[in-house]
Amino acid sequence: MNIVRAGFYTSLATAARLLAGLVAIKLVAWFAGPEGVGRLGQFMSLMSLLAVLAGGGISAAIVKYVAEYRDDPPRLSRLLSAALCYAFCASCLMGGAALLLSRQLAAWLLGDPGYAGLIRVLAVAQLGIALLNYILAVVNGFMDVRRLAFIQAGGALVGIVMMIWLARWLHLYGALLALVLGQLLWLAIALPAWWRSSYFRRRMLRLHYDREMTLRLATFSVMTLASALLPPLVNIAVRDHLALQFGWERVGYWQAVSKVSDAYLLFFTAAINIYYLPKLASTHGREALLAELRSAGRHVLPAVIVLAAMVYALRGWVTWLLFTPEFAAANALYGPQLVGDVIKVASFVLSYLMLAKAMTALFVVSECVFAASYLALVWVFAARYGLVGAMYAFALNYLLYLAFNLLVARRYLGGLRR
After folding, report:
1. 148 lies in which domain range?
2. What's the burial of 357, exposed, middle or buried (CB within 10 Å: 0-12/13-18/19+)?
3. % of the chain beyond a pLDDT of 70
4. Number of domains in the chain
5. Buried-most residue among 137, 172, 235, 309 (CB within 10 A)?
6. Quick one: angle between helices 73-100 and 59-69, nearest 10?
7. Distance of CA 44 to the CA centre of its chain
């Protein structure tokens, strides 16, 4: 399967996930206004953090090693048993921590200790979310793109129904609760779909500690944790800083434009994640890797440029459709954000080379450095240019990250034999 066919299947799943995300944003904007959208961003960042930590941050490692070991059943069995054990232990640890700190987390992120019950639901849900991420990673590692798309699309549609029902009943609290419960309902689709696959074996659900495989997963998960944990943490810090400078209402404008970017970029990041990580992990040789990277450049970049231009041209209509008239001030923020989006996708294609080839130290250091540089740039540019300065910081930071990844890719490929 090539990137075009993979992109077709992932686009179907992404459309469903996109619709689910837009329904959530629209309902929160309707019931709670710009301030509620800002709070929604904080809670979604917490969900991302806990979901990654609960599973031990090994989803990408599972994808990589399943792609490498799928023709070696004994090693594959050892890997998956160790991965499930790793994820179970991490889920219990992080769920317990979230339960103990539920009031503090609610007060810090949502500004109201009354949301502690919601944090507790999220904490208890970590076991189910970790199992879901394990299943999706295994299916992805076998490059079963159609089955993965079916699970994601079905789960997203179930989540939409849950979101509408709970938001109408409990407003902002219900919308946030639906984000958690919707993830658990995915299992009702994921488990049967996985069981019916040709590669499913009962031993894939066995928990067993394997020192060698656990060390492989732990080493690789350091990279995944860095890439998955730093963005939500950085975004939380950025929101807090912007809220202190400009108030939560204006943070809602920033969050709205960021969510529009996340929504349409989901088509590209999903295809890159589903196709390129297992593909690059199982591809060796300079020419073969170059061919894959060039293919991504030819197919992905022109598409993201066109879509970003369309979003900019229709930004007034997009804001009106997805939010409310209160968000009209957000239209001035789209330009630099969309330029940054294009640069971001270009840098992601190259950064997956570090993930696929387990360049652990370099990847982790780069993630930390560019997270810090983004915070610094937001601090400086927001003080100088106002709220739009956060968008300038976003675009410039990804331009620097792209330059770094070009250097890394050139050096790595230059060291391979033809």
Report:
1. 3-414
2. middle
3. 90
4. 1
5. 137
6. 170
7. 10
